Amino acid sequence: MQDIGKKYRKLVLVCTNLKENGKECCAMKDASALHAKLKEEMKKADLTVRVSKSGCLDRCSDGVTVAIMPDDIWLGGVTEADIPDIVARATGKAA
């Protein structure tokens, strides 16, 4: 193992997990499309914040779930309309 250094100052995780047997999950709530739009908007605002897909964040009934790290901010029921607020929270810039 080698230390590769830190490229990003923050990480925004968007749960895109798909559960089997039709169980409630973020993927059923269009999480992949939300991830793509959030990633696009974040690139415009701040290249030091990385938006990544994640597996299950164990908040399925609250989905789509987004976590901003290392700030320990957890958001549930996220929709496309929330993207400006998430960008503002992650970058520290007013929406």
Structure description:
This protein is α+β, with helices and mostly antiparallel strands. The protein has a single domain (10-91), classed as Glutaredoxin (3-Layer(aba) Sandwich), CATH 3.40.30.10. It contains two helices and four strands. It has helices at residues 31-45, 83-91, and strands at residues 10-15, 49-54, 66-69, 73-75. A four-stranded mixed β-sheet has the order 2-1-3-4, covered by helices on one side. Helix 1 (31-45) packs across helix 2.
Q: Return the CATH architecture.
A: 3-Layer(aba) Sandwich
Number of domains: 1
Shape: globular
What percent strand? 15-25%
Present the secondary structure layout.
Elements (H helix, E strand, L loop, with lengths): L9 E6 L15 H15 L3 E6 L11 E4 L3 E3 L7 H9 L4
Parallel strand pairs: 1-2
Antiparallel strand pairs: 1-3, 3-4
Helix pairs in contact: 1-2
In short:
This protein is of the alpha+beta class. It contains two helices and four strands, in the order βαβββα. It has one domain: Glutaredoxin (3-Layer(aba) Sandwich), CATH 3.40.30.
Key words describing this protein structure:
95 residues; alpha+beta; Glutaredoxin; 4 strands; globular
